[in-house]
Structure formats: structure tokens, C-alpha cells
Amino acid sequence: MKALELKNVDKSFKKRRGEVVRALDGISLSVGKGEVVGILGPNGSGKSTLVRVVSTLVFPDSGEVEVFGVDALRHSKKVQRSMNRVSVEASFFKKLSAMENLIYGAKLYGVTTGEARPRIKEILNNIGFAQKRATEPMEHLSRGMQQKIALARALLTSPVLMLLDEPTTGLDPRSKKDVQGFISRIREAHDSSILLCTHDMGEAEELCDRVGIMMDGKILALEEPEKLKARYASGTNGRVPTLEETFMAATGYSVEEASAEGE
Ligand SMILES: Nc1ncnc2c1ncn2[C@@H]1O[C@H](COP(=O)(O)OP(=O)(O)OP(=O)(O)O)[C@@H](O)[C@H]1O
């Protein structure tokens, strides 16, 4: 059984002036148990819509979505419990501390305070998050630290399918490395299944078992980073292309150009 399976998923949005945007155009993909699948795409390619459909925040127009073998469209409440979405707009009670937010998050998933506390301490230790900062109000923490707490909250309910929507966008290079290191450790320690959306080539290459390139609501190719690069190797004189070059070869655009088009 797969952690996540999508078959032929379509989702369109009506814009002002009656224009229709196909945010998801026949998307099929799977994430195996313990696998990290990356979706690499510029702004507007449909990554967030994909994550929102899987997390049952948005209903697709057609297609099938299964999470650990359960139909996510029919049994949204049930599948919500087996996954966690971490996005930049992660919501916290800003006046409460990280510890309080984590305990609250655990309670939502039926984990008692007594059970949660030692696990929170262990997780915070693992990510090198000073225990004393965990009692400060969230609003005093940097964005990188808040993002780590968002990941820690998702981990509390493991084993889960984690949906990471641009987990390092907007972070300074140091925090970015920290968060990426944390994601690597999550996969080693927790055997989590992860769908990671990013527009960062290096991040996809470093963290993912397979990477898909997304453009205009379609996934153009989905395979191991090495194979993906080999597929689009022509044009670099036999040298293995970078993922940036691969993206260019697959779409005809650089990530920056494609982002400008998508907006
Ligand atoms: N609620 C909505 N109403 C109308 N259009 C939408 C809505 N949500 C997404 N779209 C459109 O669907 C397309 C895909 O958007 P989406 O946010 O999924 O892309 P993305 O790859 O996540 O981009 P970004 O990296 O900027 O978040 C865009 O053209 C966007 O404007």
C-alpha cells in the first residue's frame, strides 16, 4: 500500500473576467512508505493546490486521492489524522510558547499532555532547539525557529504522511540549512513518507528519493534526481546537468522565467 496515491486529478479555478486556470491537469503520482517525493515547480505551477487537495482543504473536480489506502475524498476526517501539512502560513497561537503550541497540536491528534511532553523534549533535542526558548512566546522566535516548531508539531503524530509546502522559502541561508538537516533526520529517524514542494533545485536533489517537475498543472517527469538529470543530459556535452539545467531542458524556461509567466 502506498502512503499517497493520486490518479488523474484535475482542479480548475475561475479567475475574474471568466478566465479558467487548470491548476492541476491530470495529476497522477504516488509516494511510497518511507519515501520522499519532491515536486519542483515555479510560482503558479500548481504545487500549493496539489498539497491542498491532498490535505483535503480543496476538493478536486475529478480524479482519485488515496492516503494509506483510504479514499481521501470520501473519508477526509479519517485521512486528516494520518497526515500533517507544514506550510509557510503554519498557524500558531503567537502569544503562547512553542511548548504550549506543541501540546495543543498533540491534543488535536488525541495525544495526552503526559504522553506529549517527553516526546516534545526528545524532538526539540534532536533538532537542536534550546529547551529554554521553547517556553518563550512564539512571536519572539525567528521565522526559521517557527518553521522548525511547525515541523516538530507534524512529527509528534508520527507515523504520518508529511506534506511540506515550500518548507524553507523565505529563510536565511543558515536557517535553511538547519531546516533541511532536520528534514533529513526526520526521514532517517521516523521513516516518514514525505511530499515536498519546492522551487529550490538543490533542496529537491538533496532531500528527495524522486523528483517531479511541475509546470502549468502538469507533472512532466517524476523519477530519481540522477535519472531525471540523465534524461535531459543533452545540451551539456555529456556532463551531468544540474537540476536547474534539467528544469530548463524539460520546460524550456528557467525557474525564474517560468515563475514570472505563472504570476
Ligand atoms: N483559490 C484560488 N482561486 C483562483 N485561482 C487560484 C486559487 N488557488 C490557486 N489558483 C491559481 O492556480 C494556479 C496554481 O496556483 P498554486 O498556488 O497551486 O501554484 P504554486 O505552484 O503553489 O505557486 P506558489 O509557489 O506561488 O505558491 C495559479 O494560476 C493560481 O493563480
TrEMBL record:
Molecular function in Gene Ontology: ATP binding; ATP hydrolysis activity
GO BP term, pick one: response to antibiotic
Membrane topology field: Peripheral membrane protein
Localization in the cell: Cell membrane
Chief place of localization: membrane
GO CC annotation: plasma membrane
Domain ABC transporter: 4-241
PANTHER family referenced in this protein's UniProt entry, alphabetically: ABC TRANSPORTER ATP-BINDING PROTEIN (PTHR42711), ABC TRANSPORTER, ATP-BINDING PROTEIN (PTHR42711:SF18)
Protein name according to UniProt: ATP-binding cassette domain-containing protein
Organism ancestry: Bacteria, Bacillati, Actinomycetota, Rubrobacteria, Rubrobacterales
